[in-house]
Every structure is written in structure tokens, then in C-alpha cells.
Design brief:
Elements (H helix, E strand, L loop, with lengths): L2 H19 L2 H24 L7 H18 L4 H18 L7 H27 L6 H26 L3 E3 L3 E5 H21 L6 H4 L7 H14 L5
Antiparallel strand pairs: 1-2
């Protein structure tokens, strides 16, 4: 059994059960930990390429601003981004960090924190911002559709993939896999809407497609909030 299958049959149900039955603050705590882990992985990967990206200041900045965003609501997002852009370079310049590559390191540090603030912040708001009663349904829908699309793209691409989408950037992705991902995404939308989310408008369901829960979350949140499609 591969890693995908192991996750699907073990971790997946536990995550979905936690989303459904545990209080929202537990869900936010899990998202907070996942965001810090992902940010640390990105920074450490870049540090292996001899880029002196500061790890601790980046994680502290994300660890502080993400709960503040959820506590104070979306209205403070602009202020938090401005604070990150101003504070992180200052910390770098005042700290004992290498001068060589300083510009790149500061830019990457700011990007990392802002990226996960926006994406992980949106993941949290999917559960809490739109409607506390149906928040778990929105997160279910988001997770199952994205996971389903990713699974379809992986297995169809691995079995039938012949025509590469982007040979240089992502040589393993194929047009056949993309088609399989889209097909399973549509099935996921139908399944979620039929089983537990009948109030979901079809035009909203048909717009969610991405390979990453964090990356897709701001798009889903924007569709609910900005386009007036929330139930």
C-alpha cells in the first residue's frame, strides 16, 4: 500500500471526523500547526540551497499573525501583511544573519509568511467565517473535492498519461491526468452535494479545482463571501 492509499484509509477519516465533531478551535489549532510545519519545510528546503532564509523569525511571525487574523477577522489582514513586510526585514538586518543573499532571504521570508497567512487563514475561515452551523460542511466539501481531484489526476495520469502538460516545470503531469482530475472533481461535487450539502449552489461547486488545500482555500472563501453564494 502506497502513501496515498495509507493516508486515505487511516489519516483521512480521522481528519474528517475531527472537522465534524470537534469544536472549531481544535480545527484552527490543527491548521495552525500544519501551516507552521509547511512553512518550516519550505524554509529548510531553501536553506539547503544556500539561501540564508531566517527560520525562527519566519515561524514566529506566522505563529503570531495567524491567530490574530482569526481573532480579529479578515478586516485586519492588510495591517498584518504590512507589519510582516516591515518587521521581518528589520529583524533580519538587526540580527546576525549573512549579508550575502540578504535581499533574497528577506524576500523569501516575507513571501513564506504572507503566503501561509493568506492560505491557512482562509482554511480557518472556511470553518468559522461563513456560517458556524454549516462550517464543517464547507470544509468537508473543500477537502473531499480537492483530494478527489488530486487522486483522479494521479491515478489516471500514472495509468494513461502520454501527453505532458509542462515537461520542464512538472514533467510528471499529463493532460490525461488533468482530465481525470477534473472528472473526479465533478464527481466529488455531486457526491458532497447529494450526501450532506444540498444547500450548496451548483455554480459554486463547479468552480473548485486545485492540487492543494491551502492554495485553493482563498478561492473557495472568496466565492462564498464576495459572490454572495453563501447559504
Amino acid at each position: 500500500m502506497g502513501k496515498r492509499e495509507l493516508f486515505a484509509f487511516t489519516v483521512g477519516p480521522i481528519v474528517l471526523a475531527a472537522i465534524r465533531f470537534l469544536p472549531p478551535w481544535v480545527y484552527l489549532g490543527l491548521i495552525w500547526l500544519a501551516a507552521l510545519a509547511a512553512a518550516a519545510e519550505l524554509v529548510l528546503m531553501l536553506r539547503q540551497r544556500d539561501l540564508p532564509v531566517p527560520l525562527v523569525p519566519s515561524l514566529v511571525a506566522l505563529g503570531v499573525t495567524l491567530p490574530v487574523l482569526w481573532w480579529k477577522d479578515i478586516a485586519v489582514a492588510g495591517l498584518l501583511v504590512a507589519a510582516i513586510v516591515l518587521v521581518l526585514p528589520t529583524v533580519y538586518l538587526l540580527g546576525r544573519f549573512p549579508v550575502a543573499g540578504a535581499a533574497s532571504a528577506m524576500a523569501i521570508s516575507v513571501f513564506t509568511v504572507v503566503y501561509f497567512l493568506v492560505t491557512a487563514g482562509a482554511m480557518g475561515f472556511l470553518r468559522t467565517e461563513i456560517d458556524p452551523v454549516i462550517g464543517w460542511k464547507i470544509v468537508f466539501f473543500h477537502c473531499l473535492v480537492v483530494w478527489g481531484g488530486d487522486t483522479g489526476a494521479y491515478y489516471v495520469g500514472r495509468t494513461f498519461g502520454r501527453h505532458r502538460m509542462a515537461p520542464v516545470v512538472s514533467p510528471k503531469k499529463s493532460w490525461e491526468g488533468f482530465a481525470g482530475g477534473v472528472a473526479l472533481t465533478f464527481f466529488g461535487v455531486w457526491f458532497c452535494r447529494t450526501v450532506f450539502f444540498p444547500e450548496l449552489p451548483w455554480r459554486l461547486g463547479l468552480a473548485d479545482r486545485s492540487d492543494s488545500l491551502f492554495f485553493a482555500a482563498p478561492v473557495v472563501l472568496a466565492l462564498f463571501l464576495l459572490l454572495g453564494l453563501a447559504p
